[in-house]
Predict the 3D structure of the following.
Amino acid sequence: MNTTSSAVRFWPRRPRFPLLIDTGTELISARTSAECTKRLSRLRIPADLRYLPVIDGMAEGFGYYPEQHVISSMVLKRRWNKPEIIKLYHARKSPDAPEYSTKSLGNKRLEQVVAEIVELLR
């Protein structure tokens, strides 16, 4: 199923950008609502897939629901931590993408880890 080209909606509240979106095979990023709509519209999403996990810039959990073309905070995983985000990046990155360094991880804020991974996905 291909998503529609209309703008993605947010319910009941908007996530803080940038976003990380787990497609199940790769991790994509979006810095703005327009970029999010553009990247989601390019995805081939199986018809039986209910939602895709989304992590916002504050490491809060959201979900993208393709049938409604909505990103919602109504998900089971409400908060992500640094090791989970890094593990997801390493599991989904392309073979030629750089590793995310865990050096000085204790000195980095969670928001910084999300931002750095967004940059690595560029």
